[in-house]
Amino acid sequence: MTAVSVARNEEPRLILLDIGLPGGTGITVMERLRNFPALAHIPVIAISAREEQPTEHAAVEAGARAFLPKPIDHERLLETIRQVLGET
């Protein structure tokens, strides 16, 4: 099952998406999500261990609401989730 299929079935409030996926990239997943009107509104927080500056730029260009580098700081992750969901 693909990430887009899971999102269509589960209708999450937020997606935490790794840019470095086996067999593809998180950028491609975000582009596919944006092609489905029922999914385009779901905020995406992109994460990656790749070079931060260009990866963050690509993720934001693809529609990510936020970007976090790996290793993940758990407090920063929670803060970012609250912010993206408008709960701060």
Structure description:
It is a single chain. Helices cover 44% and strands 19% of the residues. The protein is α/β, with parallel strands linked by helices and 88 residues long. It has a domain at 28-88: 3-Layer(aba) Sandwich (Rossmann fold). The strands form two sheets. Strands 1-4-5 form a three-stranded parallel beta sheet, with helices on both faces. A two-stranded antiparallel sheet has the order 2-3. The chain is globular, with a radius of gyration of 12 Å. The N and C termini lie far apart (33 Å). The mean pLDDT is 91.
Could you write a compact summary of the structure shown?
The protein has 88 residues and is of the alpha/beta class. It has helices spanning 3-10, 26-34, 52-62, 74-84, and strands at residues 15-18, 20-21, 24-25, 44-48, 66-69.
Largest sheet: 3 strands, parallel
Shape: globular
Number of helices: 4
Percentage of β-strand residues:
15-25%
**Strands in their spatial order, largest beta sheet:** 1-4-5
First and last CA, distance = 33 Å
The SSE order reads: HEEEHEHEH
Topology-level CATH name of the domain at 28-88: Rossmann fold
Q: Quickly give the structural class.
A: alpha/beta
Average pLDDT, all residues: 91
